[in-house]
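S., here's the first fold you wanted:
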Amino acid sequence: MSTNTIIWIIVGCALVTWLPRIIPFIFVRNVKLPDIVLKWLSFIPICILSALVVENLLNTDQSFVTLDWPVFAAFIPTLIVAIWTKSLSTTVVVGVISMAAIRYLL
């Protein structure tokens, strides 16, 4: 493949990734959404974060689902700090440090 082909593939991938994220904002920029829609949309970040956390807490390598104990051990102090401080950056730092310490000790 030539360099031009690779550049066009990268540009195409960027557009395919970028357009579906931007087009909804363009359409609703000047529209007043009903309160029920705004309330429903406010739950989306919580649902996505919960799905990511639960997916990592569960171990599906076997034929049955088990709890991934090292991840769960890092999750507990991270959750406590998240509830206590309500700071995303502090929560992320505590989570990374907790997981690093657990992996170092195991």
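And the second, which I think is the more interesting of the pair:
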Amino acid sequence: MRRVDWRLLDNRTQTQLLRRPAQLTSSTTASAVTAIIDEVRDSGDVALRAYGERFDGVALADFAVADAEFAAAEATLSPQLRAAIDEAAERIATFHRAGMTAPYSVDTAPGVRCERVLRPIQRVGLYVPAGSAPLPSTALMLGVPARLAGCPDVVLCTPPRRDGSADPAVLYAARRCGITRVFKVGGAQAIAAMAYGTATIPRCDKLFGPGNAFVTEAKRQVAMDVDGAAIDMPAGPSEVLIIADAGANPAFVAADLLSQAEHGPDSQVLLLSDDDALLDAVSGQLAVQLAQLPRADIARRALQSSSAIRVESIEQALQVSNRYAPEHLILALRDARAALPRVTAAGSVFLGDWAPEALGDYCSGTNHVLPTSGAARFAGGLNIASFQVAITVQEVQPRGIEAIGPCAVELARAEGLDAHLQAVALRLQAVAS
């Protein structure tokens, strides 16, 4: 990690320091993704097979996961892993169920009832990465709220392994959420397939899930296309920002940095501290722990675009964090709870020394599909409401038009919209007669 002193940087250099790796290469990524999307729209399954052979090393005759493969997947997993997936699913459901939005109705005037009703999105497309590391946890994070929302048609895409099968743990997690329509397609081409549809993969109304820079860019492009699909949020590449004081455990901090760095070379990790000794100790721990990691090469590449930043105070660190708006924020502070009110932009916050980000990735109960690339300034993490549409309803009785009609007439007259005025005035006349 590069070591910098925030106090010595001008505003332009600070801004550059906080840029994500994916943002620095966005134009190259965007053009490559556009080509993939165009080919999938034009050639459908033929393009998917070609890209599968090119990127995944296998050309599949059939993308759909059959019942036999689901059954084989379950038999492949150890009882301990099945139990862990089941346990995590229950905890995720417990958290999300507690935060479900409720429909409501209110009389805003005598004879005027306004309501808000909730409906599940009819067909949703879930993307579960499985490139360098399969993520059954993501299948849970997407599948559990989709099930609780009541979405009637759920499609899941995940990259195939080189033998043509899907990762068994991903399949078990998907079925645990009641998902049976799984397709072995990955990358930007999977996003394009779910957005526009092919002969095999149905077109979806909204797409969900994290991914690398190519997947995230594909989601952005289809969301901008009137013929494409809505998306949950920009969710990837992964990132973490840690604010640590002098009392933080350097080994814990280094482990948390590496847990995000190992996601991919385009991940980014930032450490902010007002204590030089802590920064030195974490640097030493990174070297020790990296030597023991199977994915050390990936983590090292991510660390090349990451920074250890010396700040003047914890208060300044919080200001920098809010400016960066991290996907994950760890407050390794002696009184982390006291700092929480000053956090205004973060996807998910982890308080104190005993809340590693990895728990949020797996089984604390919160969702790990979170806004990245600074989107935490205006968006929150995935929840049940993400899978629903809210419809407002108005029911007006004759006494209701009498009560609020004159208000509408006055506003319509001020705006010069005579047809609006007439639509209300005619009813007022009918009530009066």
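Why I say that: The chain has a mean pLDDT of 96. The longest strand covers residues 112-120.

Talk tomorrow,
H.
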